Amino acid sequence: MRRSTALTALLLGMTLAGCASYMPYSGPRASSMNDVAHNKVMADIQLVDVNYAISRYLKDEIERPKLDLLQDFTNPHPLSYTVGPGDTLQVYIWEAPPAMLFASSTASMSTPSGSIMTTIPDQMVGSDGDIMMPFAGEIPCAGKTLNQIGAEIRERLARMAHDPQVVVRLVKNHAQSVTVVGNVKNSTEIPMIPGGVSVLQAIAAAGGVVRPVNKVTIQLSRGGKVLQLPLEEVIRNPRENISLRGGDVLTALYKPLQVTVMGATKETKEVDFQASGISLAQALAQAGGINGNQADAKAVFVFRFEKPTFLPQWPKPVQITANGEVPTVFRFDFSNPATLFAAQTFPIQNHDLIYVASAPITDLQKFLGLIVQIVYPIQGLTTAGVVP
């Protein structure tokens, strides 16, 4: 009996000595994350404690670049179509009686008012941006509206014709068009028209998107700049349904967005979310929520690589990785009710990792379970007389 007791004590001692190293667990303990400032292995990682103010700031920092770009991409004059090389124009000229210039033209006809209307054959804007008009010579058109071109022609004919009136019509548009590609039914080029073409009009002209609206992001490329907008937001918010410009490239992107949720949650899983975004609270809810029997409510973390300029002030001097980013851990204390508001606002990004640490009592429970597994077999062997 004494020998069995001694053996049990020896095994317990060995277990106690090694429990910290060999006790099973699913990820970093809260204590190792809390020691970021003094742990050399984690010296390059920034640990940011998140409250509602920081969460709101981070959300605004993500939204602000989009709003600034949206302002840059907005067409201030969507109703003004400007002509370019390759466009085909048709010109109509009315001359008040008595007509002096176009009365004998074969392209002219009398109107009930007695004036003479002359139709000039279709004119294509040349590579130099001009068209040739009878009696008026070369008319510069590139970069001008139809009304401006008509006014130029009228001014030149005023010395030769009797009170001329001029109307210019766009017959074919080859100079300015919008290219629509990606997850649409028909990739196409859409000619710009007087009055403008909006994002949704361009997508509709391409046959619409082939994926669910809430999974599609619209990418607009112009002059080296790129703007991305969730299609669902463009539909919901008229301000984001901006008027396009000639040369724009509109791409419908189907980008599955995912966040990984691990640790003391009801489920370890990858959570898909919509292009319009998801908050930390929503991501945890989709994983079944925090496991109340295992989780340390003070140790909920979001792991992410951030730009060095993302925060105005980091907790410690910034160390940049080879790809120019800062490894960042955002920490949430869910034992504080105010943190729930922060979790509702905190924006999750694609490929984030959410980790919920286990509570210290969980390790104790595992340890006690391990003791039971060791002690009871020894007692059974003693009872059977195998161990004296």
From TrEMBL:
InterPro entries: Poly_export (IPR049712), Poly_export_N (IPR003715), SLBB_dom (IPR054765)
Gene Ontology terms describing biological process: monoatomic ion transport
Domain of life: Bacteria
Keyword Signal found: yes
Subcellular locations according to the entry: Cell outer membrane
Alphabetically ordered keywords of this record: Cell outer membrane, Ion transport, Lipoprotein, Membrane, Palmitate, Polysaccharide transport, Porin, Signal, Sugar transport, Transmembrane, Transmembrane beta strand, Transport
Signal peptide region: 1-22
Domain SLBB, residue spans: 176-250, 258-356
Record-linked Pfam families: Poly_export, SLBB_2
GO CC list: cell outer membrane; pore complex
Membrane-spanning ranges: none
GO molecular function: polysaccharide transmembrane transporter activity; porin activity
Protein's membrane topology: Multi-pass membrane protein
Polysaccharide export protein N-terminal domain residues: 78-170
Family classification: Belongs to the BexD/CtrA/VexA family.
Protein name, as recorded: Capsular biosynthesis protein
Origin species: Acidithiobacillus thiooxidans (Thiobacillus thiooxidans)
